[in-house]
Automatic annotation (TrEMBL):
GO terms for molecular function: acyl-CoA dehydrogenase activity; flavin adenine dinucleotide binding. Residues 228-375 form the Acyl-CoA dehydrogenase/oxidase C-terminal domain. It is an enzyme of class 1 (oxidoreductase). This is Cyclohexanecarboxyl-CoA dehydrogenase. Its cofactor is FAD. It comes from the Bacteria. The keyword Oxidoreductase applies. It comes from Halomonas cerina. Belongs to the acyl-CoA dehydrogenase family. InterPro entries: Acyl-CoA_Oxase/DH_mid-dom, Acyl-CoA_Oxase/DH_mid-dom_sf, AcylCo_DH-like_C, AcylCo_DH/oxidase_C, AcylCoA_DH/ox_N, AcylCoA_DH/ox_N_sf, AcylCoA_DH/oxidase_NM_dom_sf, Cyc-hxne_CoA_dehydrogenase.
Length: 379
């Protein structure tokens, strides 16, 4: 076993951490107010090789491994959790496009995504339910050289900031369930596409919304992979994104812990620094332990992916534990800051609102536990 990061990974961590502290953290709150992420930031991340770095170099990747992509998302999310969505979406969608699009189509879009010039969202969930994704209804009907899409996707992150979407649609019958689903790469400026934005409690800089498809003609060669294979493709991609999401959330937890340990040395009560009171230090010590363990679990899942080993169960563990733990940690850190922690001058309240969303997005804890149980119950 080797728990050390490589020299290259340490160097990447250092440079992304600096960018995150200098440019991302100071505008974390402002991006919430603006309801968007500045395109200059997206382009800067692209220029630094932070978007889809593990993708093949012919598609704009930097030849990195998935563990290094974990390092990048962790450091970005330390400064601004929401900006962490950019490497997450680039990696999740990038893998699907790189593996399943025609090479020319992949080339056309991935070079823009990895350069930070294009944003790609993923559109799976529908109004009638997200957990039972194999039951989706958005219809794609073949008409000559096109598939015509009709229906609604909902709860889509960055729906109104994206240039292109990976969309899952039904090309077969409802009874075929997963086997009747295909994936398409859909430019968001096609005729018949409109979007809406929800009023959410958190992740305002990302924004969630619906995408409506009204007779949208998508070229048939924009299908990703084979007809009826879309569902299988997305599930494979989610194994990767779940480990990244764990790190994205745990980074916020670790940043909050670091700030709170410092605060305990600065604030005094009853003539002593708060650090003298075990009622404050012991909960933080427990959370420090849990965060370290959960973080190792995420890097383990990424290491398994890098070594082409199965990691569905390990990734599901990252996805339910990371966001829940991060929420609990941030809450404890907010409380340790007393009345100032509750205010918006400090980032804890926003962090709570933001990380909570990923207890649902990309699959809920119950669904993750179903996956773990399915693999664990002896047959
Ligand atoms: C912040 C955020 C970002 C998101 N981003 C995207 C995105 O970019 N793209 C996208 O396609 N979707 C996205 N989603 C949607 C998300 O994937 C779904 O919300 C999620 O899969 C759950 O679906 P649902 O909300 O329809 O809940 P439902 O499926 O209706 O479930 C409701 C409740 O029942 C529980 N439940 C359902 N079935 C079972 C079962 N078998 N056993 C135990 N419990 C069960 C669920 O865990 C949940 O608590 C996002 C959601 C959020 C909150």
């Amino acid at each position: 076993m080797n728990f050390a990061f490589t020299e290259q990974q340490d160097a990447i961590r250092e440079s992304v951490a600096k960018l995150s502290a200098d440019l991302l953290a100071p505008r974390y709150r402002q991006r919430e107010t603006d309801g968007r992420i500045e395109r200059e930031i997206v382009e800067m991340l692209g220029e630094m090789g932070c978007l889809g770095g593990e993708l093949p170099e012919e598609f704009g990747g930097s030849g990195l491994d998935c563990v290094t992509s974990g390092v990048i998302i962790e450091e970005i999310a330390r400064g601004d959790f929401n900006v962490g969505y950019l490497p997450l979406l680039a990696s999740l969608n990038g893998q699907i496009i790189a593996h399943h699009a025609r090479p020319e189509l992949a080339q056309e879009w991935l070079s823009g995504i990895t350069a930070g010039q294009k944003i790609c969202c993923i559109a799976l969930t529908e109004p009638h339910g997200g957990s039972d994704a194999a039951n989706l209804k958005l219809k794609a009907s073949r008409q000559g050289e096109h598939f015509v899409l009709n229906g609604e996707k909902t709860s889509i992150s960055m729906a109104d900031q994206s240039d292109v979407a990976v969309v899952f649609a039904r090309t077969g019958s409802q009874e075929q369930r997963a086997g009747g689903i295909s994936a398409f790469l859909v430019p968001m400026d096609l005729d018949g596409i409109t979007t809406s934005r929800f009023e959410d409690s958190g992740q305002q800089a990302i924004g969630r919304g619906s995408i409506f498809f009204d007779n949208v003609a998508v070229p048939a060669d924009h299908m990703l992979g084979d007809e009826g294979q879309g569902f299988k493709q997305v599930m494979q991609g989610f194994d990767y994104s779940r480990a990244l999401i764990g790190l994205q959330c745990l980074a916020v937890a670790q940043q909050s812990l670091d700030e709170t340990w410092q605060w305990l040395t600065e604030r005094e009560a009853f003539g002593q620094p708060l650090a003298a009171f075990q009622g404050l230090t012991h909960p933080l010590a427990e959370y420090q332990t849990f965060v370290q363990a959960a973080r190792l679990q995420c890097y383990y899942a990424l290491w398994l992916k890098d070594h082409d080993r199965p990691h569905t169960t390990e990734a599901a563990m990252c996805k339910w534990w990371g966001p829940k733990l991060a929420f609990d940690v941030v809450k404890q850190c907010l409380l340790a800051h007393g009345h100032t922690g509750y205010g918006e001058d400090l980032p804890f309240a926003q962090r709570l609102r933001d990380v909570m969303g990923l207890q649902i997005g990309d699959g809920t804890a119950q669904i993750m536990k179903n996956i773990i149980a399915r693999q664990s119950v002896p047959r």
